[in-house]
Amino acid sequence: MQSGNAWALQPLADMTTDEFQNWQKLLESRSGMVVSEQRRSFLQVNLTARMRELGVSNYSSYYQQVTDGPSGAVEWVTLLDRLTVQETQFFRHAESFEVVTDFLSKKAASLHSGSSLSLWSVGCASGEEAWSLAICAAEVQRQSPNRIEFGVTATDISHNALRQARQASYNPQRMSKVPTEWVERYFVQQGDGKFQVASWLAKRLCFARLNMLDLAQAPISGMDIIFCQNVLIYFRRWQRREILNRLVARLAPGGLLVIGVGEVAGWQHPDLQPVADERVLAFTRKG
Ligand SMILES: C[S@@+](CC[C@H](N)C(=O)[O-])C[C@H]1O[C@@H](n2cnc3c(N)ncnc32)[C@H](O)[C@@H]1O
Prior knowledge:
The protein is built from 11 helices and 10 strands. The protein is an alpha/beta fold. The chain has a 7-stranded mixed sheet with strand order 6-2-1-7-8-10-9. Strands 3-5-4 form a 3-stranded antiparallel sheet. The radius of gyration is 21 Å and the shape is globular.
C-alpha cells in the first residue's frame, strides 16, 4: 500500500495476462459477467479507479483484498457496482410493454374480481423497468371492470442500483418516454424538480437483491409475467439458456416471459409457445 496521493500521481500500469485472467474468472464465477479481451481496458480503468481510492498500487494486492473474507465481501459489493452496466430507461422497448399490456388486459378479463397478478423484473437496475411494468398493470387495473390486484417483484445483483430503485425518484430527463398523462397519474413532482413515484403505486413493488446465478435457490414462483431484458447479453450462451430454463420454472401456467430481442438465439423450451409478434421476443407458458 502507498499513500493515496503518491499513487494517484503515478501512470497506470497495464494488467499482466495472468492478472487479467484471474479477474475474468472471478467476475464470471461470481456474477456470470464475461469480460472479453475487447473489454479489458474497461476492466482496467474501473479497477484502477477503485484502487486509487483505496491507495492500492497493484492488481494482485487488490484481488487479494476483494477475495479476502468478510471485508472482501464488502469491497466486492462496491466493485460490482462499478463494473456492471446499469443503463436503463422507462418503457425502454416500447413494443415489449405493449405486449405486456395486451397480455394483462386479456388476463384481467378472464379473472374474478379480487384475483391478483404477479410480475417480475429480473435485472431491474435503478427501477425504471419495474415501475414501467407497474404502470402497465395499473392502467389495466383502471380499465378493467373486475377489481384486479397486482404486485411487482424486482431483483438485481447491485445494491446501489436497488437503493436507487427503492428511492423511486427520477430526474426530469429520465421521464421523456413516460406519457404526460401517466406522469401526472403515477408521479409527484418534488421541490427539487425530480419525479417521485406515487406512494400508493410504490406499495405494490418489492425490490430484492438476487444474483441470477443463484436462481435455483430463489423463493419465487407462479409469476404471471417475467420480464428480463438487457441482462442475459452479459452471460455466456450456455449460461443464458440455463437461466431462462430456471425462469420458465417460475412462470405460472399461461404466464408470459419477455426477453430482449436478439438476446438468445435458437433457444426453445417444451413448455413455451412463442408470442406471434415479430417485434418482440416473448413466450407464453402452456397449460
Ligand atoms: C443494462 S442493465 C438492464 C436494466 C433493465 N433490465 C433494462 O433493460 O433497462 C443490467 C442490469 O443487470 C444487472 N445484473 C448483472 N449481472 C447480474 C446478475 N448476475 N444477477 C442479477 N442482476 C445482474 C446489473 O446490475 C444491471 O442493473
